[in-house]
């Protein structure tokens, strides 16, 4: 009698899983999981450097853009061959993506001097791989010789407006 409650709960759970995944059932028999609400952009800063991500939750295969802003007054060095570096790591600390693109024409690079109120902005994107497992990823961005700034991005889950398919 002590074990009857867990057995009944396990049986109910199995029945729910089977009814949702059954090929004999119409799509009306399956209730999609609720969608997650849209979240505000991820924002992080260190000293004169700040990072804003346009999304903090993305579906595998989607992209997230990061805007790195360096505010004056400041003198810093950022090589034109790659003024900003983006490294994305998984929860185990393994790098899953890295990029350091050359500065587009007109973007500040080499020896950069910003007066009070002046800002230099750099934009990078991470196109997530569709095979990435769901979970948290740490995007670390470095503008030249300035301190690194990190933002958390979650891959997986559903954003508002997504229409999940029952299978």
Short description:
This protein is mainly β and 167 residues long.
User: How much of the residues is beta strand, in percent?
Assistant: 35-45%
Span between N and C termini? Answer: 36 Å
Class based on secondary structure composition and strand pairing? mainly beta
Q: Biggest sheet: strands, sense, closure?
A: 5 strands, mixed
The gyration radius over C-alpha positions equals 23 Å
Task: Based on Cα principal axes, name the global outline.
Answer: elongated
What letter string, H or E per element, gives the SSE order?
HEEEEEEEEEEE
- Helix count from the secondary structure assignment: 1
Mean pLDDT: 78
With strands numbered from the N-terminus, the spatial order across the biggest sheet is 3-11-10-6-7
Residue windows where pLDDT falls under 50 for at least 5 positions: 1-40, 159-167
Query: In percent, how helical is the residue content?
Result: 10-25%
Total E-strand runs? 11
Question: Which keywords apply here?
Answer:
disordered N terminus, mainly beta, 167 residues, 4-stranded antiparallel β-sheet
Task: Give structural notes.
This protein has 167 residues and is mainly beta. It is built from 1 helix and 11 strands, in the order αβββββββββββ. The strands form 3 sheets. A 5-stranded mixed beta sheet has the order 3-11-10-6-7, with no helix packed on it. Strand 6 (84-89) and strand 7 form a beta hairpin. The longest helix is centred in the first third of the chain and has 18 residues, at 4-21. It is elongated, with a radius of gyration of 23 Å.
